[in-house]
Amino acid sequence: MDIGLFKRAYNILRQNGLREFLFRMRKAFARFILPVSAHAVSADVCMEIDDIVRQCRQLLASEAKREPDKEVYRLLKENAPWYQRIELPGHNLSTAEEEDWVVFDGASDNMLGGRLSARGAAILRPLPKWMFIEKRLPPIEGKTVLEIGSNCGFFSFEFARMGAKQVVGVEAVSEYARQANLIKHLLSVDTVRFINRDFLFEEGLPESDILFSSTVLGHMIFPFLGLYKMLKCAKEFVVLDIDVLSVSNPSFDAVCTLQVSNRDRYHFFNFSNAIISDFLRRCGVSDNRVSRYFYSNRCLYIIDVRLLDISPVLKSGNDPLWSNLSE
Ligand SMILES: C[S@@+](CC[C@H](N)C(=O)[O-])C[C@H]1O[C@@H](n2cnc3c(N)ncnc32)[C@H](O)[C@@H]1O
Fold this sequence. Notes:
This protein is an alpha/beta fold. Helix content is 35%, strand content 19%. It has nine helices and eleven strands. The protein has a seven-stranded mixed sheet with strand order 5-4-3-6-7-11-10. Strands 1-2 form a two-stranded antiparallel ribbon. Helix 2 runs antiparallel to helix 5 (127-133).
């Protein structure tokens, strides 16, 4: 039995109270008895996920202590905890070098449908989902990339490594943005910069070829405004990676749920694929512009916005009363 599970249950009870604890237990139990996503995941994807899980387990099992750079060790320790694991090969260290530097929350977006333990997923985060996402990205070399919810910067550094011309990470929480800037300094990457802003309320962000965001949309207070802004900011592709709700009819059930926690100061919206697809159509993005990759209760959307006019703002011609379009 995973000891981290008890620790997590205790933390939820302590921080969020009995009501939230019981609500999460009910959800976890429902997931346990109905573990299969309603979205068909192809046999190839299942095999690929199995392979990723195998590689992740090997990585966890083979971790050996190295002789670290003492000064960098001290800096990482002082700035812990780290939500993401970022490797610093030049210093023989990673931000997950010590267990007490790691954030042991659910890490459910990296558990790959429960195939990795919560503990393993938290230690490796966000590598497990990145191993699935990376292969499906549009070309990154020479492109400008805007990452929303960049946290400690893992994905932004990966885009730089893949040859992006310029990467900007936007992060609402100042502590994360500060951590990302520290890692940028330690890695000496000059094509990446991080800014501490809430994407929803920030005007004047650079239009970029690629807009990337993973496990962030649900945390936005106005997620549909967020998705609209993502479509407007991207010149070529929006790469959106989110949890998707299991619903009885994946093609028709347009559902959005809201879960509030941390004494009502934190929240998470969950979306069904149908509501995302309907909203994209409402913004002028037809289905043939969207590639969907379902994996482990999640979906990676690669949205081609090249030469698209994203203009969902209501005008007379859109209102059935004032337009001559009939349903
Ligand atoms: C669940 S974490 C995911 C972090 C990272 N994308 C990953 O997948 O590992 C969500 C991140 O998005 C950030 N975030 C949430 N809403 C945001 C917003 N409106 N603007 C910028 N960052 C936001 C949070 O502070 C947090 O770092």
